[in-house]
Design brief:
The longest helix is centred in the N-terminal third of the chain and has 14 residues. The protein starts with a strand and ends with a strand. The strands form 3 sheets. Strands 1-2-3-4-6-5 form a 6-stranded mixed sheet. The protein has a two-stranded antiparallel sheet with strand order 7-10. It has a two-stranded antiparallel ribbon with strand order 8-9. Helix 1 runs parallel beside helix 3. The protein is of the alpha+beta class and about 190 residues long. The protein is built from 5 helices and 10 strands.
């Protein structure tokens, strides 16, 4: 890496109820700025809302909520959250108390994190995954930043080029997606 990456913590949770896919907290020094990076991949599948919330509580407690200076620090949390946010409910039209929203409601209530895609594209639905459960496309992938880091964001979007187009490969034995079943998120910063 052009900028040295330091692993601060691997987040696994308790043995009896782990963070299934794990999470990690790393730091990167960029032009004199310490950037805290949290990677996330919460448990998938419909109906796992309570487990995802359990995972997110551990992730938040062991990262941003453990930093007394988090509000003024540069924090980024990104990944596959396997859940949707109520900021996109103009598209989904779910009931207000739908459990699909609960993970992102927790993030909004317990941290100062900002969903940078919805902030940069208000009122625009940006699908990051193909058809999913009861949805025809969904935004399951997010990049959250603190207010201090938001000031350094130059651009944020979902890649929609030919390479990142979600395509199912039925000729493969697993019927896997190519290149992935999720589109890349791109956030440019001005350090």
């Amino acid at each position: 890496s052009k900028y040295p990456i330091r692993n601060v913590k691997r987040i696994a949770g308790p043995k009896e109820k782990p963070v299934m896919h794990g999470a990690a907290w790393s730091t990167v020094e960029v032009k004199g700025h310490k950037l805290n990076l949290v990677t996330v991949h919460t448990v998938p599948h419909r109906g796992n809302h309570a487990y995802r919330n359990h995972e997110m509580k551990i992730i938040l407690d062991e990262t941003i909520k453990s930093d007394p200076n988090a509000e003024d620090a540069l924090w980024l949390m990104a990944g596959d959250f396997n859940s949707v946010s109520r900021v996109d409910n103009f598209f989904y039209r779910f009931k207000d108390d739908d459990p699909y929203f609960s993970t992102h409601d927790m993030i909004a209530k317990e941290t100062k994190y900002i969903d940078i895609l919805s902030r940069r594209h208000p009122g625009v639905f940006l699908s990051t995954a193909g058809s999913w459960d009861r949805l025809n496309g969904a935004r399951l992938d997010y990049v959250y930043v603190t207010p201090a880091l938001e000031k350094l964001v130059k651009a944020a979007d979902v890649s929609k080029d030919d390479y990142s187009r979600i395509c199912r490969e039925f000729r493969l034995p697993t019927q896997a997606y190519r290149p992935s079943d999720h589109r890349p998120l791109i956030v440019d910063f001005n350090f």
